[in-house]
Specification:
The complex is a heterodimer of chains A (449) and B (341). Chain A has 449 residues and is an alpha+beta fold. Chain A is built from four helices and 30 strands. Chain A has two domains: 163 residues, TolB, N-terminal domain (Rossmann fold, 3-Layer(aba) Sandwich), CATH 3.40.50.10070; 265 residues, TolB, C-terminal domain (Neuraminidase), CATH 2.120.10.30. The chains are: A alpha+beta (449), B mainly alpha (341).
């Protein structure tokens, strides 16, 4: 019995073995026929070489307007640090038009990887029609093509919109060029500086004043709709109040009817309420006010100075600064004020926290050993990184895509004053933003569209 | 008898098992010795020879169309689409807006379709925009107490470090100043000193790793991934027709040089799998095909950057001609994991 079993087993095993041996060559053949597979783990982080010839006019020839708009596009892309525009003087194909594919080889030899061909024409009514195509020089195909119409006065904006479209298509995330900055424009000598609210395009152009310099104004902040701002204004008694202003109509209203000073306002992500801090007997606490009902809700109640609140983009959490632990540090709490957790632990003091529109980072100003630093930290308190430092850096504000920060830096000296700068998350692409005079407290608008 | 039969049976089983195991393993892990890897670099100039033309619709896969919203796509598009057009002149298309029907060409370019409605949209956009110029309400003339902004702002009490060790005490270990020093731009005043190679440091989520960013000069450590080690069985077999690890490594290193990650892909690790079919002379037999897909908004950029890298790197004339059968069809996984982490 046992023997029979064993024999059976042997036979079976033998049969399988034979089969396997017979099949072996085929298995091998199959394996070797399998395509070779390799892995590339390292690439480069070079700015993308891009060619932006002067845009054609309506008649097909390069036009002055076309050149101006092409310059706006080129400057936007270059300032982002992610693109390397190629010198127009080196171009080989001079007559490229939007109507037919370019001679790719002429652009390849310049090492261009992308090419923008565009045409702008202005009708008799002054309206501008702009169209562009983005070409993949390497692959020899079109990546994008769009056209826009706008009033003649908005020609710069056409450039920003095109730059945004190019950025989005090539980088994979939203651009931030068609945006604006509200800031405090400072003029006059240091001893008698006049501060106005002003608004301008993200690249420092089209500056317009919003107030007349009769009140001291500070910390303007955009609402998500971009139609409204909140800021602090000091009244004649020197008391700060939070003021809401409609950018369209210029109408203003004060926030908070109770006595006491209110400051550091910011909108909630849905734009329906505003969060700010209010001074209470030497301390300050954080409040949330519904903009319709005007009802205020207390979020913190400590004998410390809690201020600088800012919502996370999903509206679920709030980051703020507090000295409840002895020094000014950053804390994150739930939207109802519960569960406050300290997230900053470096030496020095932290202030002006701002949650990134992407939600992944919180920017802050840090003062440590006499230095002013702008940095970012993850909402859980890990990954703190300093992006830039200088003589009194302050007030970071995020570009809507969460890749770039604007802030102001006070330059020392009797003729010194604050200027606006941008820095990207690499910490290496820092640029000054041109303004007509000194400028501080920038607030970056959300995407306009 | 019984005993010997059983013993014999057991031995046979063991023997067969051993054979099987060995077989199985060897077929899976043919790992060739990895010796020092010579860097073989082909001339970049070669990339200019690359033919753009013969794209077959497939290439488009690369670009998952993601219809972008404001795409009023200009009419001329059709003409433009000829992804391959070696002779542009012929394709000349009059700018005539006649929104060209999606040509039977497989060209996905979905962007075209939206043409009609979009047109309207952008227009609105720009027009509506009215510069928020509100100047009406001048502020009541109050004496501007040019005082100190944000009065209530706390006294900067830096002295008492009051630890507050409650939350993650270990955090305090991490010496940010050091990191700051590492990460901080040496010369902020010179913005132009943008060093793209540091992006990895920045995108890097681990602060301590910030300084690990590869320097420009640093030779790329193209590492033979296990997957290809598996393949390079050849030499051991003595058949001579398999690619050696060195040969594959040369391929990897060559492609790496041409791979640029646009904007660092937002720091996301997006893996792109490309299938590359080559001609005996090393030129692309057709545009690389993207074999996978991803949900990341960066996938399209990542996929296109990978395709561009291969297109720029072609032709691969350095590949051993006698082993053409081995490299005529190569799958390449572009995985920036190590760069971004």
């Amino acid at each position: 019995m046992i023997e029979q079993c064993a024999l059976k087993i042997l036979r079976t095993v033998g049969a399988i073995t034979c089969l396997a041996l017979l099949a072996a060559p085929f298995v091998f053949a199959a394996l070797s026929a399998r395509a070779v597979e390799v892995e590339i783990n390292r690439g480069n982080l070079r700015p993308l070489p891009i060619a932006i010839p002067v845009f054609q006019g309506g008649d097909g020839a390069p036009s002055q307007l076309g050149e101006q708009i092409a310059d706006v596009v080129q400057a936007d892309l270059e300032r982002s640090g992610l693109f390397k525009p190629i010198d127009r003087g080196a171009f080989i194909e001079r007559g490229a038009t939007i109507d037919r594919p370019p001679r790719f080889n002429d652009w390849k030899v310049l090492n261009a990887e992308s090419l923008i061909l565009a045409r702008v024409s202005q009708g008799s009514d002054g309206r501008i029609r702009a169209e562009f195509r983005l070409w993949d020089v390497i692959g020899g195909r079109q990546l994008a093509g769009e056209q826009f119409f706008t009033a003649g006065a908005n020609w710069r904006r056409v450039g920003h919109i095109i730059a945004d479209a190019i950025y989005k298509r090539l980088i994979g995330e939203q651009g931030y060029f068609d945006t604006r900055i509200v800031f405090v424009d400072e003029s006059g000598p240091k001893s008698a500086r006049v501060k106005n609210l002003a608004i301008m395009d993200q690249d420092g152009q089209n500056v317009r004043s919003l107030t007349k310099g009769t009140n001291l104004v500070l910390t303007p902040r955009f609402s998500p709709s971009t139609q409204e701002i909140a800021y602090m204004a000091y009244n004649s008694a020197g008391q700060p109040r939070v003021v809401l202003r409609d950018l369209e109509t210029g109408q203003e209203q004060s926030v908070g009817t109770l006595s006491g000073m209110t400051f550091a306002p910011r909108f909630s992500p849905d734009g329906r309420s505003i969060i700010f801090s209010r001074q209470e007997e030497g301390n300050s606490n954080i409040f949330l006010m519904d903009l319709r009902s005007k009802q205020q809700m207390r979020l913190t109640n400590t004998p410390a100075i809690d201020t600088g609140p800012c919502f996370s983009p999903d509206g679920q959490r709030i980051v703020f600064e507090s000295d409840r632990g002895g020094t000014q540090q950053l804390y994150v709490m739930n939207r109802d004020g519960s569960g406050a957790q300290r997230i900053s632990f470096g030496d020095g003091s932290y202030s002006t926290p701002v949650w990134s529109p992407r939600g992944d980072l919180i920017a802050f100003t840090k003062q440590s050993r006499g230095r002013f630093l702008i940095g970012v930290i993850k909402p859980d308190g890990s990954g703190e990184r300093i992006l830039t430092e200088g003589y009194h850096n302050e007030g970071p504000t995020w570009a809507p895509n969460g890749r770039v920060l604007m802030f102001f830096r006070d330059l020392p000296g009797t003729n010194g004053g604050p200027r606006l700068f941008t820095i990207d998350l690499t910490g290496y692409n820092e640029r000054m933003v041109p303004t007509p005079s000194f400028a501080s407290d920038p607030a970056w608008s959300p995407s306009i569209n | 008898m019984k005993t010997s039969l059983i013993v014999s049976g057991i031995l046979h089983v063991v023997l067969f098992a051993a054979i099987f195991l060995n077989f199985a393993t060897s077929s899976n892990t043919m790992t060739p010795p990895r010796g020092p890897v010579p860097v073989e670099i082909t001339m970049t100039s070669e990339i200019t020879e690359q033919k753009v033309g013969k794209a077959d619709g497939k290439a488009d896969k690369t670009t998952p169309p993601k219809a972008e919203p404001k795409k009023p796509d200009a009419a001329p598009e059709p003409v433009a689409t000829p992804q391959v057009t070696p002779k542009p002149a012929e394709r000349q298309a009059t700018a005539a807006p006649p929104p060209p029907p999606p040509k039977s060409e497989p060209a996905p370019e979905p962007e075209k379709k939206p043409e009609p409605e979009k047109k309207a949209e952008p227009e609105k956009k720009t027009e509506v925009e009215k510069p928020p110029e509100a100047e009406k309400k001048p502020e009541p003339a109050e004496t501007p107490p040019e005082k100190k902004p944000e009065p209530p702002k706390p006294k900067k009490v830096e002295e008492k470090p009051k630890p507050k060790p409650k939350p993650k005490p270990e955090q305090r270990e991490f010496n940010q100043d050091r990191i700051a020093d590492i990460l901080k731009p040496k010369a902020p005043e010179q913005p132009s000193k943008f060093n793209p190679n540091r992006i990895s440091a920045l995108l890097n989520k681990d602060p301590n790793a910030g300084d690990v960013a590869p320097s420009e000069q640093q030779p790329k450590l193209g590492r033979a991934p296990s997957s290809f080690q598996d393949q390079a069985l050849g030499s051991e077999q003595g058949t001579g027709d398999k690619l050696t690890a060195n040969e594959l490594d040369a391929f990897v290193r060559h492609v790496e040089q041409f791979w640029d990650l646009p904007g660092g892909l937002g720091g996301e690790v997006v893996v792109v799998k490309l299938r590359i079919e080559l001609q005996p002379n090393g030129a692309l037999a057709r545009p690389p095909q993207v074999m996978n897909s991803g949900n990341s908004s960066f996938f399209q950029s990542a996929a296109e950057s990978a395709v561009r890298a291969v297109q720029k790197a072609a032709p691969f004339s350095f590949m051993p001609a006698d082993k053409y059968a081995e490299w005529r069809d190569i799958t390449v996984n572009f995985n920036p994991d190590q760069m971004l982490r």
